[in-house]
Write a structure and sequence with these properties.
- There is one protein chain.
- With about 400 residues, the chain is of the alpha/beta class.
- It folds into 2 domains: about 200 residues, no CATH class; about 160 residues, GMP Synthetase, Chain A, domain 3.
- It contains 12 helices and 13 strands.
- Strands 1, 2, 3, 4, 5, 6, 7, 8 and 9 form a 9-stranded mixed sheet that branches.
- A hairpin with a 6-residue loop joins β10 and β11.
- α7 crosses α8.
- It is globular, with a radius of gyration of 27 Å.
Length: about 400
């Protein structure tokens, strides 16, 4: 009896394993799909929505091969753009011109143009939510130029523009803001901070005629889902990275307190915590940042073997970082946009008080909210020289 039961169990397990090995998880073949890896959204001059999808071209992925033998040329990607009354209308027009079914499973980048950013990006979030294959951890970027400028960006070190943008995030060059972050923010005030892309003509592109150089800029503030002024410059954007704990290392330069010459420091092990507290029956916050540092380069005559000089430099470095963080916070207060989601942190700890403060939170955040910034940096290493090499060469 036990032997028969064991054989039946093994037979059932074997049949289950065979079902898992079929490999058929969808009725749509891969060869019938067009894979999107970047989505560009903007508005036209006449108020329509402009949708541009960037596709990988598998038949051009392997240089010199297409269909196994014939030669091929051209870029391994293509952009297709259509205008419509709505985003879905533009999407339908793109699909109607393709021989393959559009697939969003590999779409990891969404770039928003200035026109749509001013109107609000709710239509983009709505569209993404209704596409089951679209990852909500797709990264958002915004540009104050026309979004189609990105098509002319040269891909010198990467095969796809999307790879360049993902590298900006991986290398901690710019903010990491996803669709998910924006959706979570919508449950409160809809405020967020998006990384900015800038485009400019670069005469240094010798072999890339008619190309526009693309780079990371500052950051764009969104209030209630819409782009507002002012914007953050690059230094303020990097300070925002500090506040959001999206950066682990950085290089900061200050003027020497002795002779005004530049000293650069490499900062590592950077950590930031934002703590809410009650103060006079209202909200208050402390933003505390810690880091370790060592001297990267020095043009100053200051003697780095002197302990008092080390403490002096450490204090100057802390003040510089503190000033940058305060400027970044100040920009968001000017915009009346709680992009660092302080209100959400306060709600978690003091829900009853938050319920009372929430109706007037924007006004409180912009004008009255106490936000203390504390920076503690430990200068551990001065490098192999205690004085500038330039200064030593004079002797």
């Amino acid at each position: 009896m036990k032997s028969r039961y064991f054989r039946s169990m093994m037979l059932g397990l074997t049949l289950t394993l065979f079902l898992l090995l079929t490999g058929c998880w969808s009725s749509l073949e891969i060869n019938s799909r067009a894979f999107v890896n970047i989505m560009l959204v903007d508005t036209t001059d006449n108020g329509e929505t402009q949708l541009t999808l960037g596709f990988q071209l598998p038949n051009r992925m392997i240089p010199g091969q297409s269909g196994g033998s014939s030669q091929t040329s051209g870029e391994p990607y293509a952009f297709i753009s259509k205008n419509g009354i709505t985003l879905s209308d533009a999407y339908r027009k793109i699909q109607s011109d393709l021989s393959r079914k559009i697939a969003f499973g590999q779409a990891h980048i969404i770039v928003i143009g200035k026109g749509l950013a001013k109107q609000g990006i709710d239509p983009v979030l709505e569209f993404v939510q209704r596409q089951p294959a679209f990852h909500i951890n797709a990264n958002l970027f915004v540009t104050q130029s026309k979004v189609l400028e990105i098509i002319n960006a040269p891909t010198l070190f990467e095969r796809f523009v999307s790879s360049i943008l993902l590298s900006y995030i991986d290398e901690e060059v710019t903010l990491n803001t996803t669709v998910r972050d924006f959706l979570v923010a919508q449950y409160k005030l809809g405020d967020a901070l998006l990384p900015e892309l800038v485009f400019k003509n670069d005469p240094g592109l010798k072999n890339e005629k008619d190309k526009t150089w693309m780079g990371s800029g500052g950051a764009i503030i969104f209030r209630n889902g819409k782009m507002v002024s002012p914007t953050m410059d690059s230094d303020e954007m990097r300070a925002a990275l500090w506040i959001l704990s999206q950066i682990k290392t950085s290089v900061v330069s200050i003027e020497s307190p002795t002779d005004g010459k530049i000293i650069s420091f490499f900062l590592e092990k950077m950590k930031t915590k934002t703590k809410p507290r009650l103060e006079d029956q209202s909200a208050a916050f402390t933003i505390k940042s810690n880091a370790e540092a060592y001297v990267l380069s020095s043009e100053s005559k200051i003697d780095l073997s002197n302990e008092e000089n080390i403490e002096l430099l450490q204090k100057e470095l802390e003040n510089e970082v503190k000033s940058r963080i305060q400027k970044a916070v100040g920009k968001t207060r000017q915009a009346k946009a709680d992009v660092f989601r302080l209100g959400e942190k306060f709600d978690w700890k003091y829900p009853a008080t938050w319920k009372r403060l929430q109706p007037s939170w924007r006004k409180l955040y912009a004008n009255e909210l106490p936000i203390d910034v504390v920076v503690e940096i430990e200068l551990l290493r001065t490098g192999g020289a205690f004085q500038s090499i330039k200064d030593k060469s004079k002797f």
